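Help needed: design a sequence for this.
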């Protein structure tokens, strides 16, 4: 009997959490670039092994992410100030954007304006400088830069921009770029809802088939993320909630738009509680576990 009660409680926890929210798990995204597509100030479709990108990937484990840039066979990650060689990757997550740069030089040696950069690699985000856990790759054909995301709940959306560049001593510049397409999302932007009653979010694309993309709605200042192009959700606490909606695919193409939900008080007087608002699911989990443990204790 005790086991049945405990199992039932766990099932309840699963139903409550999965019915409305998505929690970001460990994941990997990988994009493949064309090879032998280097261009310079004067020519295109050139081959320069040390900057010819073949594959870029982001590997998320907990709150740490590893950005990896793989060159074509024969390529080698080099560090050089003259001529300048640099590698740059931009990561978009469900909550933030990050840019990682590697030049192979100690930036602090460049003098005024670079005193805060004491590493050969730099990671910046939309909130400021991010500490690097580790980086490697010099003399190899794979560059790796590891750093912590602001939250383990961030979902990987796209490695949206990648650049490998070499500025030669003769003034000619060679580069390889991996760029994604920007999607343009249409959504109602401002939604009206009644506390305790379900409402539907709705978005579409200006061009393209929306079924070809994954959709993710992210509420600001919470861990609530909802999947689907037109998901249904319920919030019980009257307030104004804001967030962003993403559409994205496996090639890294993505779009972003913003929305708000004005939740009004129910005319029946319900809706003053806090359940099913962003953050409530964690409270339900804690309470359910506490109830299960209390039952087990009493049965002993």
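Sure. Designed sequence:
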């Amino acid at each position: 009997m005790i086991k049945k009660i405990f199992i039932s409680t766990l099932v309840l926890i699963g139903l409550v959490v999965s019915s409305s929210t998505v929690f970001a798990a460990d994941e990997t995204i990988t994009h493949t670039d064309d090879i032998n597509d280097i261009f310079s100030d004067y020519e295109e479709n050139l081959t320069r092994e040390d900057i010819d990108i073949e594959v870029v990937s982001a590997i998320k484990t907990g709150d740490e992410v590893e950005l990896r840039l793989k060159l074509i066979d024969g390529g080698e990650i080099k560090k050089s100030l003259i001529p300048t060689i640099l590698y740059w990757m931009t990561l978009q997550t469900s909550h933030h954007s990050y840019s990682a740069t590697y030049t192979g030089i100690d930036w602090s040696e460049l003098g005024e304006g670079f005193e805060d950069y004491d590493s050969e690699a730099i990671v910046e985000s939309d909130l400021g400088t991010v500490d690097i856990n580790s980086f490697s790759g010099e003399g190899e054909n794979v560059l790796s830069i590891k750093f912590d995301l602001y939250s383990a709940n961030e979902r990987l959306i796209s490695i949206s921009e990648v650049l490998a560049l070499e500025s030669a001593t003769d003034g000619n510049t060679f580069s390889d770029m991996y760029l994604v397409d920007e999607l343009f999302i249409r959504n109602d932007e401002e939604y009206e809802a009644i506390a305790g009653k379900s409402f539907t979010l709705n978005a579409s694309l200006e061009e393209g088939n929306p079924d070809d993309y994954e959709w993710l709605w992210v509420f600001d200042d919470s861990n609530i993320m909802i999947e689907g192009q037109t998901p249904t959700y319920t919030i019980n606490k009257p307030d104004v909630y804001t967030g962003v909606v993403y559409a994205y695919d496996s090639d890294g193409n993505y779009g972003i738009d913003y929305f708000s939900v004005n939740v009004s008080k129910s005319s029946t007087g319900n809706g003053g509680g806090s359940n099913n608002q962003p953050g409530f699911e964690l409270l339900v989990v804690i309470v359910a576990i506490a109830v299960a443990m209390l039952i087990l204790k009493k049965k002993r």
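The CA atoms of residues 123 and 174 lie 23 Å apart.
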